[in-house]
Design brief:
Elements: H1 2-11, E1 13-22, E2 33-36, E3 42-44, E4 50-56, E5 60-64, E6 71-74, E7 78-84, E8 109-114, H2 115-122, E9 137-140, E10 150-153, E11 161-165, E12 168-169, E13 190-197, E14 211-217, E15 225-232, E16 238-245, E17 253-264, E18 273-285, E19 290-298, E20 301-304, H3 316-321, E21 340-341, E22 347-348, E23 352-356, E24 359-367, E25 372-392, H4 400-403, E26 407-408, E27 411-412, E28 423-424, H5 425-434, E29 441-463, E30 467-488, H6 498-503, H7 515-518, E31 527-549, E32 552-569, E33 583-597, E34 602-613, H8 617-620, E35 637-649, E36 654-674, E37 680-693
Amino acid sequence: MLTLLCMSGFAQTQKIAGTVIDADNGEPIIGASVLEVGSSNGVVTDLDGNFSLKVANKATIKLSYVGYETVELAAKANMGIIQLKAIAQVLEDVTIMGQMAKQSKTPVAVSQVNALDIEERLGGGEFPEVLKNTPGVHANGNGGGWGDSEIWMRGFDNTNVATMINGVPMNDMEGGTVYWSNWQGLSDVTSVMQTQRGMGASKVSAPSVGGTINIITKGIDAKRGGVVSYSIGNDGANKLLFSVSTGLMSNGWAITVLGAKSWGNGYIQGTGYNGYSYFANISKRINDRHQLSLTGFGAPQSHWQRPSGNSGALTLAEWNNVKKYMTDGMDYRRYNPAYGYANNGKQKGANFNKYHKPQISLNHVWQIDYKSSLSTSLYTSIGRGFGYTAEASPYSQYAYSDLTRGAYNGVLTTVFRREDGSFDYGKVEDINAASTTGSELIIAENRNYHNWYGLVSTYQNKFFDVLDMTAGLDVRYYQGIHQAVISDLMSGEYFIDATRVNSVTAENNYHRNDPAWAYQKMTVGDVVYRDYTGHVMQEGAFATLEYSKDKLSAFINGSFSYTSYWRVDRFYYDENHQRSETVNFAGGTIKGGVNYNFNAFNNLFINAGYISRAPKFNGAFMSSNVSHAVNKDAANEKIASAEIGYGFHNQYVNFVANAYYTRWMDKTMSRSTTLDNQSTGYINMTGVNAQHMG
């Protein structure tokens, strides 16, 4: 009887599918509600306007979207293309979806991957690696540690590539960096990831030079349902995940929650990792004019690393030398020169990272009338974490800060090298234990905390059916708290900080000629090397005018920003002298482009722009460790760029060829150096230019 009942229930349902488009321009409508009348069963359309839904036989389907006439149709397997006619001109969420460029319309080089592409391409890889096949983008593992991936776009590193998640900027406000280990869970909740190479067409005041990465996470468009999965891969890789979503319910609410844990040994020797990720979105379509969305996500993680750069990277000749250590048959390219153990048998090293950078944003969309809307996002990010650093005392007999990373200037260090190739941290502990002047080497937590608050508000209006005007405000405030705190004396009794000893005679040191400060015996929990907070305040405004009629589309965009930097140094100064002067920079951008569609398959585009932007935080000060050494010669960096491209698109081929030229002028480059009298000096190099073309 049970089997017959189940078969009978199955026979009473059918699966339907279709595409919802704008009746006026044929564009897909994203997030349109598709609801089975008389039930709470429904979905929303995806980024291509498509939907699929299992409904009862002879059901009636209601299709609706803000600003469009509601349509009711009889359900059938192939619903085909359904046109919705605008009661009012519907506008996209200008803070989030308004950042997305449209191929064959926006005159910039664009590539896009959706959720299915990410699932198929990524496998067990890291999130940035999904862009490996994107033209003009280089993604690599940067040493091979879990979460250490980096992205380069048109020859620019990630400090010059604007990264946004749901319209909110992600680049660190001091140095512009993006640490992808903080966003490992994004691969599981991304609806679409788009790259705009070059200056792009995104509508924010922060300029992009190499390009822009826009990531849109699941929200009101998430399909109803859930999943629990466990995956396993090479090198002990494990991942446990759950995800559940209500989809858009008949009461206008939509909730999506995800959690995951990842752990493994790492492909590179001694790069084990342990990470979690979480995501939650609560959205409410209040009525035809208002929508609220609250999103929170983060990815607390810890992982060992293989060092790179001067202190860790090996030359090709040295890589051949390390083959002798791979007696177990392991590929020598997996060798980690900093991998080793302490006397207690536990893994030790100064190449470890632990961080958690949760972000919370609240977005409100207001459809003011038939042609205008206002979208506002409030967001905050509270980052906490550290990476290990090795610090040497002034009594050190070796250059420990180099030795503990296993290599220096491409050559493997051998002083503390065991026969199996691992680093002998136990020998360092023995030296410290026998020392009469305290630890010669210690491990410190190089803490980089931040508190970040921001607002992006965007107004959009339409004129004469061919002109779209967008204008908005972009305001941000950032505190970067930087300390080095002793976490391991490595079997020594105390530690003398070489940074204090070497700086007591400096003019900008409040404690100069103070032996009690310079030669203080320090222990676990004490601050060494640095202790300061960097403050960044940025106010900006932007405006874009877009024209689109028949085969021609064009845009012009301008922005203005005012950036203020100051530092509060607790290491070198007392409370009355800690704050540096405030350094201010005004900048702006102007960019535009034209696209012409010869027909449905062929288009030609050109774009050009000019950027004047504030130097990065460390460029405004002569040294990252001396707060009052303001770089008096710091000037705005200037970037000029031009591009031309051709595209051919049909259902089988998506081909784009483009040529670009970018000139980067007055790059900010300040460095510290040791002068002839062995004191520390600071130099500022001006007039440094670079060009990128391809």
